[in-house]
Amino acid sequence: MTTESGTRTTRRELIARGLKATWLIVRDLFDHVLAEPIRDGRIRSKAWPLGLKTIVAIAIIGYAVAVSAILFSGWIRQSVELTVNNGAVVHSFPRAVLWVILFLVALAISLLQTAVLHVSAWLAWLSTGLTALILVFVGAFDTSGFFSIGHIASFVSIAGLVALLLLRRRHRFAWWEFVVVLLLISGVFAIGVWRSAELSAPTGIDFAPGMLSLIMFEIGQLAVPAAIAAGLAVAEISTSTALWAIGLVRRRLPAIALWIGLGLIVLWRIWSTIQEFLYGTAPKLPEILSSLVLIGLIVLLWLAFARLRSGAEESKALGLVDRLGSLSIPIAAMFSVTLVPLVILMLGIQIVMTYGVGYDSTAWVRNLVAILSSTTSFGLLRLIVGIGLIAAGFVLAKRGKKLIPEIFAAVGVVASTMAIGGLAGLNDWFWTGSALTLVVTSAGLIALVWAAIVRKLTVQRASALAVILLVASLFNSHDFISDPLSALLGFTGAALVLFGFVWSFLTDGDYANETSRKYPRSARVLLYLASSVFGVTVLAFTSLSRNPDASINLGDFAGIGDQLFGTALMVAVILAMFSDLLGNRQPVTEAD
Amino acid sequence: METIQQEARRPAPKVSRSISIATSATIVLATIGAGSLVSIAGSVDTEILGGVAAGFVPQDGESNAYSDDAGAVFVSESARSVGYSDILLLPDKVASVLFSYLSESDMRTIQLWRQTSTPVAGGDQTTDLHRLSSEGVSLLASYGGSFGLVYNPPLLELPESVGVGFEWQSKGDALPGGILTYSSNFKAVAPSSQELISLSGLSTAELKDCIQTEGTSTYLDKQSDPFIDWSESNLWCKGKGKVAAIGTINGTKVSQGSASIESALGQIPILPAVPVRWQDIDSWAVSTAELGYLDPFFLEQKLILALSISPIRTPSGTIVALNQTGNDLVALDYSNGKFERKWFAHPGGEVLSMAAFDNLIVATTSTRDVVGYSETGVRLWTLRTAELTLSTPAEVPASEAGGDAAVAVVSLDGRVQLLDADTGKVRWQRQIPADVSANIVVGSGQVIVADRGGTVWAFRISDGKSAWTSQAGEPATSLLIGTALIVVDQNGGITAMDVSSGEIVWNKSYRGSVRSVLETAGKLVVVTQEQSFELSPDDGTLIWSGEGGASAVTDGESLVLFTSDEARLLDAEGRVAKTWKLPSLDNEINRFDLAAVDGLLAFVSYQGVTIVGTP
């Protein structure tokens, strides 16, 4: 018998179940999108050698100090005296925290130098050479003579580092190596700033800020690969959110929820597209056509890889997200490989001039620097690397590899088209994120209508379509992370980079949990920390300067990374979804 | 010696807890030690000489108003510097005396305090140049008035350890070659003179940071006859300098005490506006004008400018530029083939930006101050902000500001403020959540600011409430033409919006780095080093395009484009109608070009001014 109270009880139960299911979805979404990557990607301290844990703790504290300096840079600037240099560009810096940035740079270099004591020879000697140049540069700020304290200190320190490298190359990591390296490097930094300040202070000149600016200007470029890789973070979270959200709705809620969700997403996409046309921000025809070309090229390459591989294809969307995250830094390093010789040349010019070589004598080196740092050079490099990635994709596909060839193809095509657009001056005619979104939305809606008409709109296909349209929506409005963070920081240019740096720091440490003969675990951990600390220190310097161009504009490079990796990931995931759609495969979003 | 392979086969030794702790402690201590080394090394700073006496010297950029016994009001400004750069600003004869007895080491490390007094009602500025040294605070020279003095050795004003009961003397030359000699005797007492205290306007509590000096200075001429007999009592207060003085000069009573600038605003001369209007351009010719100034006592002096920012023109036609140190504003007037300095001012630190409005000049400084001056060089007000202000302040005319003219400023941290033009008081302020370094636009009842992220914010002048927001690229410069707000960004884009709503009306792109953006005959002109072009502000239609340039100036109707060695008059179709040859620029030298009443001015650092105009 059904009574009124029975009906209410049933309704109450339904509401409770609904709330519970919603809570479980939110919890699982948070877990899969945020917590799981952090769990998988963090560095693990099991079986570390003696002392490494303490060094890692120190590096993490340094990292946290740099992040705090970024977050509180406005308050710091208002609270302490600013040194201001009014040249072609006004450069200002809070004097009281100058030594913090200087020490963090020394710490990052010390971590790097300690790491390379036990790695392959070429990296060990390249890094040591770069460290030596930096130390000579810093020591050269003591201009009191050829045999000045600063000069002597730098050469003694270099001799010590080289001796340490020769002595320790064939041995395991030992904790005291870091202590020796840190004292050698910090000592030169301290002497350099002390001597330059001592010489200039009586004349009323505070040289320390200028010294820090020069150091950051010369070596700040080395943070570029990390900044490019940081640009992936927002796209990574967006696509992961889309994949898991749909998967969890499908798993936790009745089937009707998926159809309602698909309907809402369709409406959202249609509404957004109409708004773009109404406000005059819709993409132009050339952009749409070149977007179709971009997608078409990637599709062709993927089909070619599938033929080379043979065998059944499986859903790969989630794998693409995971894999690109771990490949972003090596790929970013490839795109900025000219920066190392650029930094070496720039440091070399400063050093030889300090030791008496005339400015005119360095003309050919400066011309080389100008060539290496020109937009044409960067464009050509991008094109070469892009083509190289595509070629590598073919090689790997022939060997039966999965996912990596697809990633290389997507990144390679995106990079190559960006490069061609820049080199040929055709940027106005090339694909844009907005155009890609429009193309994807249109294709998704057409597929939806087709599947509905031919009565083949299964749950699997509905899931795939929902993911496609949701990824497109999130990609089109991916400022939902960087805009609030910019507003919170109160200044521009750092939000995307900071978010990417922190996300990368939390989730990309998994390669440091592995070991090999040429790159033992301790070295990997220290390299990972060196890169992280250095990148965030450069960002802290530009934030405290309130000048995005103070060292190098990492925000611009994060934007390039967002465009490069973010676009590649979005297109790759969407194409993977379309593949699932056509094959009527369930998009894989749960652990087997 | 073991290899890594042999080490790997050996079982890892167990590490005791105490060893582990000791290891960690060593690493931590080493890190703290390294950090401390860098911290200590980075804290080396210039030691301020002068001991206790230095505490009485005002900070750089401090100003105060005082009046004399005749009721004339003056505004005094203090400038602090180290090194000989301020000595190079002195009249030649003064500088040469100082160079003669200061060693080379002294020259590089000398610590100076320069105090300049500007009469509110107009007249000559006078300057006292003091030295801070191990002896205390001494007077090096006085100049700018009808009588100048340069002391050798310097006249000791406050000994290094000055305190109640101290006595000190000094004597030497007051003019070179013994033309005039001096001797002085002073002692320090607790503030006790009621007249001094009354003149200072300080409360009893404030007097605890003050000291009173009493003494006499006698000046003898070459024949050792008395020339000046000066007895004085001065009240010195910490951080404020001399706040009051009474005495007699050759029997005549004199006094000086604290005054209020607000009470003297009515005495400030108002200069009539002289609009820029180019006439008879065909008769223009190229000439050069030297820079200099007339010291009433030390006579004609040369003037050098070092230009980090562009000079500006006030509505009355005065040119305001920066001096060779970049720290002082210098006002120039053209007469008899020469640019003569009328006045100079030191707002504090280095000048970052400046703007000229109707009888008001506003400068922003590296000490985070926004300083307002009258067109006659009298400091009117100072506003201390939390952040630097890189953006050029903008005028809000009285008609738009509800009857009283105002000034809009925005600091680097995005704080927008509307200030009263006469007093510098803040009428309202708003906070943008982004940094701002581009210029402000005022018009259509709004103050409009574009932040570094490209967001354009419009605030109502009447109450500061937000009117609208819109989006462009990272701004280089913005201006308002009619109802079109034009934002030229740094990445090759031009966005035009309706000023009343922020709605984007049109977008265009350009090549190169933008050099000038102006309105000419109601049209938008953009000059980059690669191209120059004119657009209709209503719909962005291209009217003409041509070669690029270094800059451009306009009188509102005609346009002149500058290249590295030419000035070119362009007609309405952008064709070159006339050219004038200019001195060629060396690489990396900046030239700043201005429109003058009936011609053009080209300023280059350390050189004279090139004039293209009516002979």
Q: What level of helicity do the residues of chain A show?
A: over 70%
| Estimated structural class of chain B | mainly beta
Separation, N- and C-terminal Cα atoms of chain B? 89 Å
**Percent range for β-strand residues of chain B:** over 45%
Give the helix tally of chain B.
6
For this structure, the CATH topology of the domain at 51-267 in chain B is YmcC-like fold
Strand content of chain A: under 5%
| Alpha-carbon Rg of chain A, integer | 27 Å
What integer is the average pLDDT of chain B?
91
Give the number of DSSP strands of chain B: 45
Biggest sheet strand order of chain A reads 1-2
Word description of this protein:
The complex is a heterodimer of chains A (592) and B (615). Helices cover 75% and strands 2% of the residues of chain A. Chain A is an all-alpha fold. In chain A, β1 and β2 (90-94) form a beta hairpin. The two termini of chain A are 44 Å apart. The mean pLDDT of chain A is 87. Chain B is mostly beta strands and 615 residues long. Among the domains of chain B are: 51-267, YmcC-like fold; 390-509, Lipocalin, CATH 2.40.128.630. Chain B contains six helices and 45 strands. Chain B has a twelve-stranded antiparallel sheet with strand order 6-5-4-3-2-1-12-11-10-9-8-7. At the A-B interface, α2, α3, β1, α4 and α7 of A face α1 and α2 of B.
Topology:
The complex is a heterodimer of chains A (592) and B (615).
Chain A: H1 4-41, H2 52-71, H3 73-79, E1 82-86, E2 90-94, H4 98-115, H5 121-139, H6 149-168, H7 175-200, H8 207-219, H9 224-230, H10 233-252, H11 255-278, H12 285-309, H13 317-335, H14 339-354, H15 363-372, H16 375-398, H17 404-423, H18 433-453, H19 459-476, H20 479-489, H21 495-507, H22 521-545, H23 554-583
Antiparallel strand pairs in A: 1-2
Helix pairs in contact in A: 1-10, 2-4, 2-22, 4-5, 4-7, 4-22, 5-6, 5-14, 6-7, 9-13, 9-21, 9-23, 10-13, 10-19, 10-23, 11-19, 12-16, 12-17, 12-18, 13-23, 14-15, 16-17, 17-23, 18-19, 19-23, 21-22, 21-23
Chain B: H1 4-9, H2 17-41, H3 51-54, E1 63-68, E2 73-82, H4 92-101, H5 104-109, E3 111-119, E4 126-133, E5 136-143, E6 149-159, E7 167-175, E8 180-189, H6 194-200, E9 210-221, E10 226-237, E11 241-249, E12 252-258, E13 285-295, E14 299-302, E15 312-313, E16 319-322, E17 329-335, E18 338-345, E19 351-357, E20 360-365, E21 369-373, E22 379-384, E23 394-396, E24 406-410, E25 415-420, E26 426-431, E27 441-443, E28 446-450, E29 455-460, E30 466-471, E31 475-481, E32 484-489, E33 493-498, E34 504-509, E35 514-520, E36 523-528, E37 531-535, E38 542-547, E39 551-554, E40 559-562, E41 566-570, E42 576-581, E43 591-596, E44 599-604, E45 609-613
Parallel strand pairs in B: 13-18
Antiparallel strand pairs in B: 1-2, 1-12, 2-3, 3-4, 4-5, 5-6, 7-8, 8-9, 9-10, 10-11, 11-12, 13-14, 13-45, 15-16, 16-17, 17-18, 19-20, 20-21, 21-22, 23-24, 24-25, 25-26, 27-28, 28-29, 29-30, 31-32, 32-33, 33-34, 35-36, 36-37, 37-38, 39-40, 40-41, 41-42, 43-44, 44-45
